[in-house]
Amino acid sequence: MSVRFSILMPAYNREKYVGQAIDSILSQTFSDYELFLIDDGSTDKTVQIAESYGSRVKLLRQTNQGPEVARNKAAAVAQAEYLVLLDSDDLLLPCALATYDRIIRNFESPSLIIGAMTNFQDGQAIPADSSAALPVKVLKFRDYLSKDVSLGLSSSRIVVRKSVFDEVGGLRNSTAKTFHLDSLNLILKVCTHGPCIVVREPFTVAYRHHESNAIRGLEPIAEGILVLARTERQGLYPGGAARRRERYGLIGAIAFSWSLAYCLRSGRVKLALRLLFGTAPMIFAGLTRKFSGLFRPRSQPIILSEP
């Protein structure tokens, strides 16, 4: 029996956070979903916590192979029209699935939805205005490459039509050590499918900052960016030569930011230079696109009518 959403949540040694993540899903105001928790070889109490929820959580298990393999495993048996990616240390805010459902009904089944994300520090409360009752405000683009706003990408923001996910072959079969930039790789694989809807209000996802965030690994992230660059040079992303500059811009923007804001700031000069030289044409494309965007009119938000 099909449902609207399949939520795919890998977890590796997340006993501290996984219960809160599950609770955030079970607290949704929209109920037509199934939740897959894929244990990625945890050695702590992650599995026991998931099992305590009974049939409300569909528990899958694998040896430690990383989140991409884990999500592919769940996607292969998912019954939904849309796949919602959520990391096990983040939270879905109560209105998230209801918001995504309204967008799907208003825009005749878009290929991709990017949720609106707020941030909070581990141990602190989610910002009080995160759950405020706001009208649904979105931007609509022909596809992801056509967007004219900057987005801090996280897997937890991604909602993708399952037929599109299947068409592009899903996520990579990477490893627990090589999965970094999995969210941007998936976006690049689906970047020409449309329409793409970007949520501006209300917030749908809360991103938790803590000491073990994957983004804190300077070298793994830098290597992940270089892997994306090599994949692009091999011609493995869609859009051909006509959309190359836009793809270059996506990769170049994160390469430039990571090399300067993180590597150099941490004193990792050699790593920063390796990243800069390894993606130089892409960085140039990203900077050019950002500069030219200053002189173009921006897309105007669409406010959805009340259901």
- CATH names the topology of the largest domain as Spore Coat Polysaccharide Biosynthesis Protein SpsA, Chain A
Which descriptor suits the 3D outline?
globular
Number of strands: 12
CATH superfamily of the largest domain: Spore Coat Polysaccharide Biosynthesis Protein SpsA, Chain A
Biggest sheet strand line-up = 3-2-1-4-9-6-10-8-12
Using the CA coordinates, give the radius of gyration: 19 Å
Question: Which characteristics define this entry?
Answer:
single chain, 307 residues, alpha/beta, Spore Coat Polysaccharide Biosynthesis Protein SpsA, Chain A, 2 domains, 10 helices, globular
Overview of this protein structure:
The chain is α/β, with parallel strands linked by helices and 307 residues long. It folds into two domains: 3-213, Spore Coat Polysaccharide Biosynthesis Protein SpsA, Chain A (Alpha-Beta Complex), CATH 3.90.550.10; 218-293, no CATH class. It is built from ten helices and twelve strands.
Question: In a few lines, what is going on in this structure?
Answer:
By secondary structure, this protein is of the alpha/beta class.
What does the secondary structure layout of this molecule look like, with pairings?
Layout lengths: L2 E9 L6 H9 L6 E8 L5 H6 L6 E5 L4 H9 L4 E6 L5 E2 L3 H11 L5 E3 L2 E5 L15 E5 L16 E4 H6 L14 H8 L6 E6 L3 E5 L8 H16 L10 H21 L4 H10 L1 H14 L8 E2 L4
Parallel strand pairs: 1-2, 1-4, 2-3, 6-10, 7-11
Antiparallel strand pairs: 4-9, 5-11, 6-9, 8-10, 8-12
Helix pairs in contact: 7-8, 7-9, 8-9, 8-10
